[in-house]
Amino acid sequence: MSFFSTRRGFLKASGLVGAAGLTGAIGCKIPTRKHDHVGGLACAPLETVKVGVIGLGMRGPGAVSRLSAIPGVRVVALSDLFEARVNNRVKWLTDHGFSAPTRYFGGTEEWKKLVKNPEVNLVYVTSPWQMHVPMVKYALENKKHVVCEVPMVFTVEECWEIIELAEANRCHCMLLENCCYGESEMLALNLVRNNVLGTLVHGEGAYIHDLRGLMFAGNGYEGFWRLKWNAMHTGNPYATHGLGPICQYMSVGRGDQMRVLTAQSSGAFGMAEYAAAHKAQLDELKATRKGSKYGMTDQRALSGPWMRGDMCTAVIKTELGRTIMVQHDTTSPRPYSRINLISGTKGILKDYPLQIALDPEYKAPHLGWCNQAQMKEIQAKYRHPLWRDSGEIAKRMGGHGGMDFLMDLRLCYCLQNGLPLDINVYESCQWSVLAELTETSVKNDGAPVEVPDFTRGAWRDLKPLGIETVNLEVDKNAKADKQLSV
Ligand SMILES: NC(=O)c1ccc[n+]([C@@H]2O[C@H](COP(=O)([O-])OP(=O)(O)OC[C@H]3O[C@@H](n4cnc5c(N)ncnc54)[C@H](O)[C@@H]3O)[C@@H](O)[C@H]2O)c1
Questions:
Q1: Cα 6 to averaged position of ligand 1 atoms, centre (Å)
Q2: Is 126 close to ligand 1, i.e. is its CB under 6 Å away?
Q3: Do both 154 and 191 map to the same domain?
Q4: Mutation test of ligand 1: which of 108, 111, 126 has the most ligand atoms closer than 8 Å to its C-beta?
Q5: Mean pLDDT for each 10-residue chunk of the chain (486 residues)?
Q6: Sheet-wide strand order for 145-148
Q7: Does the C-beta of 79 come closer than 6 Å to ligand 1?
Q8: Is 128 in the pocket of ligand 1 (CB under 6 A)?
Q9: Shared-domain flag, residues 350 and 205
Q10: Ligand 1: distance of its center to the CA of 159 in Å?
Q11: What's 73's domain CATH number?
Q12: CA distances to 29, 102, 409, 421, 431 from 416, in Å
């Protein structure tokens, strides 16, 4: 057997084995720190948050209307490739009594003018994945606070570039992980902080959402960017909806830290079968679409093959010995689930549907899953204060049942009050970078991959996220629209 025919031989030859000391794991190098960390970064309060939103496809328009409803926030600039999409949002704003923002559209680089606009003090990125890193980096280079849709970044190298810029310029850089603000997720966080579940042992999160129809739709993702990603990559590119909340419960990055990950993917069966079953419709679409963006032609994206396996399952082990399972499947006909399971020495919470069980030894109400009355009691007692204070308006404003609005509300409140944001740049990078880490593990048949410590040791001292709310009165007549369920 030759040296290169064994997995360890391949890994050794590629210089990846145990570079930072984990026997057998594909290692990583940690660059030397040049600046102070920005884990609990507090910046000068922004009297008015003046937002520039880039990307007005399915996701961006809802952000524009949600943000406009928050006191002390103005949407001052908008950018998209298409003039009609920008004009549509300008009309919505002016129809609702807000001033017209500056418009940027047309060329692929027009968004840079929005970043440079001196009025803008927060750049809000809702563009395709392939544009996230250049947009986030450019905002930080121009000393603007920036928040970005999920996932913010894809490779370890890009993470270090973004961290270096955030640390050098002392700007906020936050992943817009709305699922951290879900009602069940915040209930779980409150249960954990009140030690109801005991010492945390294991968590599970996922993104299981059948997106086949949307990925192949002519009026879906602009330029078929998600299909193109699937054609070029495997692993889990979209881990953060399930992973982010679990990391907050476990204070990963703030008292615990991810250490090593392994991942396996199933074969890519779903896309090919879907494409075959819809051949006539796709042939028609191919005949009309000749674009080439995001790394390949529309023709190639619609024809396949697609590399990403349908189901990717990763397991992460933390420094304190906890385990986290993360799954991704957007190509099977399964009901939506983020799993959202957190289990400790005294009890467990899981979602889809929401259930809680508590150990009778700790005087819990019930052996087995709590019944409806017990659930009601626990939900009332441990309702997160953010939901208690602003849940009703959030539900009315919408966006995934209100969590999108609460995310924006907390973000703007923190900026207005000079507080650290709920999700720092290290968490934003670590949750997102599962894209590369899972792909590396999958391509090496499930080999363990070391997870870089982006905090460079600061995780030991960073304070866990508390139970935070806001003190902001939102206009009761405020309205949002264009909320989508994706
Ligand atoms: N957090 C959530 O629940 C959630 C839900 C949906 C989508 N998302 C994320 O939001 C992002 C956008 O998703 P979407 O569904 O709206 O995609 P989309 O394709 O519908 O919209 C993207 C928009 O960005 C614009 N765009 C592309 N390149 C641009 C450029 N160079 N300059 C300016 N605009 C540009 C496109 O014209 C398009 O209007 C993705 O990162 C996605 O993962 C998050």
A1: 42
A2: yes
A3: no
A4: 126
A5: 35 41 82 95 97 98 96 98 98 96 97 98 98 98 98 98 98 98 98 97 98 96 97 98 98 98 97 96 95 96 97 98 98 98 97 93 69 94 97 91 96 97 98 98 98 98 95 76 48
A6: 102-105, 73-80, 49-54, 122-125, 145-148, 173-175
A7: yes
A8: yes
A9: yes
A10: 20
A11: 3.40.50.720
A12: 37, 22, 11, 11, 26
Task: Tell me, using a 6 A CB cutoff, whether residue 107 lines ligand 1.
Answer: no
- Ligand 1 centre to CA of 212 (Å) is 17
Closest CA to 246 of 183, 279, 278, 200: 200
Predicted confidence at residue 475, as pLDDT, reads: 75
Instruction: Determine whether the shortest distance from the Cβ of 54 to ligand 1 is under 6 A.
Output: yes
Q: Is residue 409 part of a domain?
A: no
From 177, 207, 238, the end of a domain falls on 177
Residue 72 falls inside a structural domain: yes
Cβ burial of 180 (10 Å; 0-12, 13-18, 19+) is buried
Tell me if 24 sits within 8 A of 18, measured CB to CB: yes
What's the pLDDT at 44? 97
Does residue 232 sit within a domain?
Answer: yes
Co-location of 310 and 442 in the same domain = yes
Q: Name the residue range of residue 170's domain.
A: 49-177
DSSP code string of 160-200: HHHHHHHHHHT--EEE--GGGGSHHHHHHHHHHHTTSS-SE
| Nearest residue to 179 (alpha-carbon basis) of 228, 243, 91, 223 | 243
**Spacing, Cα 48 to ligand 1 middle (Å):** 25
Asked whether residue 264 is domain-assigned, the answer is yes
Pocket test for ligand 1, best of 54, 59, 294, 338 (most atoms within 8 A of CB): 59
Q: How many whole angstroms from 127 Cα to the centroid of ligand 1?
A: 3
Separation of 89 CA from ligand 1 center, angstroms?
15
The pLDDT assigned to 329 comes to: 98
End-of-domain residue from the set 177, 195, 222: 177
> What kind and span of H or E run contains 91?
helix 83-95
pLDDT at 360: 77
